[in-house]
Amino acid sequence: MNPVALGTIVPLMAVADGVSVSHYLVVGAILFTAGIVCMAVKRNALGVLMGIELVLNGANVNFVAFASPYLRGQGATSLGIDGQVIALFVILLAAAEAAVALAITLAFYNNHATVDVDRADDLKG
Amino acid sequence: MTGSLLVAAMNFHTLLFYLFASLACGFAVGVVVADNVVRMALYLVLSLGATAGLFFLAGAEFIGAMQLMIYVGGTLVLLVFGVMLTAQAPFVSIKTSASDRVLAGVVAASLLALLLQAAFSVEAWRRPGLGEVAPPAATPIGTALVGVRVDDPPPGTPPGVRSGYLLPFEIVSVHLLVVLVGAAYLARAKRRRTPRAIEVAASVAPPVDERRRAGGSASALTAGGVR
Q1: Looking at the predicted structure, is the pLDDT value of residue B151 above 50?
Q2: Considering B41, B70, B95, which residue would you say is the last residue of a domain?
Q3: Is residue B65 part of a domain?
Q4: C-alpha separations of B81 from A38, A99, B75, B177, B198 in Å
Q5: Measured distance CA(B160)–CA(B19) in Å, rounded
Q6: B91 close to A114: Cβ distance less than 8 angstroms
Q7: pLDDT digits (tens, 9 = 90+) for B66-103
Q8: Chain A closest CA to B160's CA: distance in Å?
Q9: Which domain range does residue B30 map to?
Q10: Domain ranges of chain A
Q11: Residue B110 domain-assigned (yes or no)
C-alpha cells in the first residue's frame, strides 16, 4: 500500500466515529485490485474465473455504498434504490457468466485434458 | 489508555464494519496469493460472505441476502464443482513464475494507489448517526422490478414519472434462460455412446445352465431381451 493512502487511513481509524462512504470505496478498491491481479496472474482457468467474481464483487460494494441510506451525503444525491437494483442485476449476471465460463472451461478440459490457460493457443496465428 | 479510548469511541457499527472489511480484503488477497485452487475457492467463499456482511451494514439487507443465496450458495457451488471435475493432480496448483508475480505486484500497487485516491476524494458523504433506522428496502426493490416506484425520490430529482425496472428484469430473465441452456449444451459429455447397464450385465453374465440353476426370473428376462 502506498504511504499516502496509509497516512489517510490511519487518521480515519483513529477518529473512529463511524464509517463513511470512503471506507466502503476502499474495500471495493482492494477487492477490485485483487480480482484484476487474480485474472492476470492465475494460470488455472478457474482461478481467472474467481478473479472475475472478485472484480464484480468490488463493483457491487461501490454500488451498495453509494445507494446506502445510512451514508447519504448532506446535499449529495444518493443512488437510492437504483444502486441496490443495479447490484442485484450484477449478482444475477455474474451467476450467468459463471455458468457459461465454467461450461467453456469444462469443454476445454474435455478437449485438451488441461485447465492451464497458457495452453489455450489453438487460435494463435 | 488510547486503546481503551478508541474502543469506547467505536460503536458496534464501526466495529463490525472493520471486522467484515478486514475479512473481505484479507481473503481476497488470500485468493490471489494461494496456489492451490481448492484453497482459492474456500477463500473466495469467505470473502464473498464477509462482503454480504458489509451489505447488511450498509442497509442493503435484501442485496446481502441475495449475495449469500446466489453468490455463495449458487455460483460458488458451481465453481467448486468445476474445481472437483478438473482437479487432476498436476492442475490443482499451477505455479505462477516469480517475474510475473513481481510485475503483478507493481501493477496492483499502482492501480490500488489510483483507486484509493479516488475513494478518499469523495468528501460530501457524512458518517451515520446513532439510532437512525432506514426502512427495509425489499419492498421498494420488488415493486421497482415490476415497474412501480414507491421509494422517495432523492433530493434534486426533477418531478415526473420515474422509470421502473420491468424491461431490464425481463431481459435478465430471458438472458439467464438462454445462458443456462447454452451452458448445459456446452458442458454436455461428448463421449462415444457407452453400452447400457443392462447389456453390460448380460455380457458378463454366467453361462445359461448356471443361470437357470440360480433361478432368477429377472436375470432370465434380461438375458432373453438381449438375445
Answers
A1: yes
A2: B95
A3: yes
A4: 20, 11, 10, 21, 29
A5: 42
A6: yes
A7: 999 988 888 888 888 888 888 776 766 777 778 888 88
A8: 16
A9: 1-95
A10: 18-114
A11: no
What is the least distance, in Å, from the CA of B139 to any CA of chain A?
Answer: 10
* Whether A103 contacts chain B with CB within 8 A: yes
B104 touches chain A (CB under 8 A): yes
Question: Alpha-carbon distance B176 to B20, whole Å?
Answer: 31
CB contact under 8 A, B96 and A41: yes
Q: CATH number of the domain that B29 lies in?
A: 1.20.120.1200
ipTM of the complex: 0.83
Q: Looking at beta carbons, which residues of chain B come within 8 Å of A99?
A: 78, 179-180, 183
DSSP H helices, chain B, are 2-9, 12-33, 37-57, 61-66, 76-85, 89-92, 98-120, 138-145, 166-186, 197-203, 208-214, 217-226
Top-ranked range on mean pLDDT: pick from A55-59, A67-71, B10-14, B127-131: A55-59
Question: What average pLDDT score do residues A94-115 get?
Answer: 88
The number of domains in chain B is 2
A61 → closest Cβ in B51, B83, B182: B51
The model's pLDDT over B168-196, given as tens digits with 9 standing for 90+, comes to 999 999 999 999 999 988 888 766 555 56
- Cα B21 from Cα B23, distance rounded (Å): 5
What pLDDT score does B14 carry? 84
Contact A46 B83 (CB under 8 A): yes
What end-to-end distance do the CA atoms of chain A give, in Å? 40
**Domain assignment present for B89:** yes
Evaluate whether residue B129 is within a structural domain: no
Domain termination site, one of B61, B77, B95: B95
- Classified by CATH at the fold level, domain A18-114 comes out as Helix Hairpins (1.10.287)
Spell out which residues of chain A touch residue B9, defining contact as CB-CB under 8 Å. 16-17
| Candidates B37, B115, B141; nearest CB to A32 | B115
> Does the beta carbon of B198 lie under 8 angstroms from any beta carbon of chain A?
no
Tens-place pLDDT, residues B14-73? 888 999 999 999 999 999 998 888 889 999 999 999 999 999 988 888 999 999 998 888
Question: Is A100 close to B47, i.e. CB distance below 8 A?
Answer: no
Query: Quick one: cell of B108?
Result: 496492483
Interchain pair A21, B71: CB under 8 A: no
